[in-house]
Amino acid sequence: MSSRKVAYFSMEIGIRKDMPTYSGGLGILAGDTIRAAADLRVPMVAVTLLYRKGHFGQRLDQYGTQTEEQVEWVVGDFLKESAVRSAVTIEGRTVYIRPWRYDVTGTGGFSVPVYFLDTLLPENDEKDRTLTDSLYGGDEQYRLCQEIVLGIGGIRILRDLGYTGIERFHLNEGHSGLLTLELLHEETVKAGRESIGKEDIATVREQCVFTTHTPVAAGHDRFPLDLVLRVCEYGRDIVNLKDILCYNECLNMTYLALNLSRYINGVAKRHGEVSSLMYAGYAIDSITNGVHAATWTSPSFQRLNERYIPVCMENAVSLRYSLNIPKDDIWTAHLEAKEDLLRVVREKTGVAMDDRTFTIGFARRATAYKRADLLFHDTQRLLDIAERAGAFQVIYAGKAHPRDESGKAMIRRVFEAREKVKSRISVAYLEDYDMDLGRMITAGVDLWLNTPEPPLEASGTSGMKAAVNGVPSLSILDGWWIEGCLEGITGWAIGRDGAGTTEVNRSNDALSLYGKLEHTIIPLFYRDRDSYVEVMRNAIALNGSFFNTHRMIQEYVLKAYFR
Ligand SMILES: *Cc1c(COP(=O)(O)O)cnc(C)c1O
Question: How far is the CA of 465 from the centre of ligand 1 (A)?
Answer without folding.
Answer: 9
